[in-house]
Amino acid sequence: MKHWQLHSHSFGNLSITVLSAEIIIIFRGKKNTIIKSIPFKKINRVAVVCGSIMMGVILFTGYARSHHVFNSEAAWYDELKKKAIASKDFEEPEKKKALKIIHHTIKSGETLSEIAQMYGVSMDTICGCNRLESYDLVHVGQVLKIPNKDGLLVNVQRGQTLPALSKKYNVAINKIIEENSIVNPDFINIGQYIFIPDAKPLDIFKGFLWPVHTKVITSGYGWRKDPFYGGSQFHQGIDIRAKYEWVRASKYGRVSFAGWLGGYGRVVVLTHPGGYKTLYGHLSKITVREGQYVKQGQIIAKSGNTGNSTGPHLHFEIIRKGQHINPYAELKKKH
After folding, report:
1. Tell me, what DSSP letter sits at residue 243?
2. Where a domain ends, among 165, 197, 229?
3. Torsion, Cα of 258, 262, 263, 265 (10° steps)
4. CA–CA dist 262, 272 (Å, integer)
5. How many structural domains comprise the chain?
6. Angstrom distance (rounded) from CA 193 to CA 199
7. Contact by Cβ (8 Å): 103, 63
8. pTM, full prediction
9. Where would I find the H helices in 240-325?
């Protein structure tokens, strides 16, 4: 009798092993381990492998729903993807990046948030470099000056000097000189454009900012009634009342994920120094892209009603060294 080579597939706590005469499905829960053996006769090898995976998914999903393995924000595969995203640690920005100024002509249908995401800079940078008074006041055909890094493009006025600009924007004068390749720091021309770099944004204060101006929590951290599957489930973050409001970065960090995450809808995940991560879910619009560095308080998205959501709000999580903590406990701290 011909024996098949062993096949093994892993999905987080779920593993599926295909032997010559049986399929073994193992789920390792927090309190116990479930082992299921399914014998079979000689059938198509590919069908066995595909069928075993499907059977494991069905068994695991049924177990998870009855034992509340995952929360109602997403199915188990969304949770696995979220864990993979959250495993990325904070990385310091590159020390040196040559300055480039790009001229972008606004096309029909484009928004400032989409343009900012396209070039990997903040909307504040584009507004500051082009003297825009609002995120919404742009028009088709308008030409924008966009640097390839966050900062401010300043048109030198009469009487302005490099020391004065350095003091005004609280940026070291040598950084301004290096960024703009200025040969003689004692002489700059009226009308000349000087880029004030913001290579390493700092937090406004040591703690976490409220990600939206509204501070009304509609669903807290911890056990609650599952709004989708019934029974009780553990809510890993807090839901903040926010009806399509601008969402800001709670802390200085790097965008490690920006996109769709199953039941969480549109999501932004930021990594921060010190092993912290923040997650912003159910967004209607994302204004940043992966790899971008953002300042504390910088606009990163707009709240919404995407994914498994019962109405427009912001789902907000704080993760410390791989473990979820109560965001409200951090937000209410005084610093």
Report:
1. S
2. 197
3. 30
4. 24
5. 3
6. 18
7. no
8. 0.54
9. none
Residue 175, domain member (yes or no): yes
pLDDT tens-place string over residues 171-212: 889 989 988 888 888 888 898 989 988 634 456 677 899 999
3-state SS record for 182-194: CCCCCCCCCCCEE
Encode 155-176: b = buried (16+ Cβ within 10 Å), e = exposed: ebeeebebeebbeeeebebebb
Higher pLDDT, 288 or 47: 288
Rounded to a whole number of angstroms, the CA Rg of the chain reads 25
pLDDT, tens digit, for every residue of 242-281? 999 999 999 989 999 999 998 899 999 999 988 999 999 9
Q: Which domain holds residue 30?
A: 7-69
On whether residue 233 sits in a domain, the answer given is: yes
Q: Which among 64, 52, 65 has a CA at the least distance from the CA of 10?
A: 52
Residues 220 and 247 occupy one common structural domain: yes
- The proportion of the chain whose per-residue pLDDT surpasses 90, expressed as a percent, equals 33
In the prediction, which pLDDT does 185 show?
Answer: 85
Say yes or no: 140 and 249 in one domain: no
Q: Count Cβ atoms within 10 A of the Cβ of residue 190 and give its class: 0-12 exposed, 13-18 middle, 19 or more buried.
A: exposed
Residue 60's nearest CA partner among 45, 80, 43 is 80
Residues 18 and 46 in one domain: yes
SS3 at position 113: helix
CATH of the domain at 242: 2.70.70.10
- The token pair at 57 is 């998914």
Q: Quick check: is 86 in a domain?
A: no
Query: Residue 14: beta bridge partners?
Result: 11, 27
